[in-house]
Amino acid sequence: MYYKLSDYAKKFNVTYRTAWNRFNRGQIKDAYVDETGHVCIPVPTIDNNVVFKTAALYARVSNNDAKENLERQLERLSGFAATNGFMVKVSVKEIGSGLNDNRSKLISLLNNDDWNYLIVENKDRLTRFGFNYLNCLLKKMNKEIIVINDIEDKKQDLIQDLVSIIYSFSARIYGLRKAKNKQKEIIDLLEK
Q1: Residues 75 and 127 both lie in one domain
Q2: Which of 80, 92, 137, 142 has the lowest CB atom count within 10 Å?
Q3: Cβ contacts of 45 within 8 Å, gap of 6 or more
């Protein structure tokens, strides 16, 4: 059983051009051009039943200054999903701190039952702390987190956590200081 490149693009939630580029780079497993010039992609089957590994992609950056990285991050996730035979059901881009446990898009994604695999680029893109808790809970729900760039070096992981904490608290302190200075400016203007 085979499907066309346009069907592939729809199933993996990418544009036709992106699907074509993946085919040209050899990223679509077992895809070939038939005698009529159409790209054919075999559909994985088990006992003649079509089987797809459904996935959700989650890309996050900490602030608006890094916003342009969201698209690149999501493209890398899409490429990984396509190369490894995942059907992307939902793609989420979010701007927010990894320490914030109240990110609305992530919460909505975790409440969505349309996927079996959550694909993230790094653990810290999902959360700065509590990754193992999320992983454990999702396993109970027969879901799995796939981290593309998993850090095996525990020392490096601890250093990244420390830097994240310092960055987060520094941002809060400077944010409070900026707010206090702004408040003082407003009071001064009102007094004048």
Answers
A1: yes
A2: 142
A3: 1, 51
Beta strands in 2-68 (DSSP E): 2-4, 32-33, 39-42, 45-46, 49-50, 53-61
Q: What CATH number does residue 79 fall under?
A: 3.40.50.1390
pLDDT of residue 130 exceeding 80, the answer is yes
Q: Which of 6, 62, 164, 168 is catalytic?
A: 62
User: If you average pLDDT over residues 12-39, what whole number do you get?
Assistant: 86
The domain of 175 spans: 153-192
Q: Is the pTM of this model over 0.85?
A: no
62 is catalytic: yes
Task: Report the pLDDT value the prediction gives residue 47, as an integer from 0 to 100.
Answer: 44
pLDDT for 142 equals 86
CA 26 to chain centre: 23
Residue 151 Rama label (left phi>0; alpha psi -120 to 50; beta): beta
Instruction: Say how many domains are in the chain.
Output: 3
Q: C-alpha angle with apex 159: 157 to 161, nearest 5 degrees?
A: 70
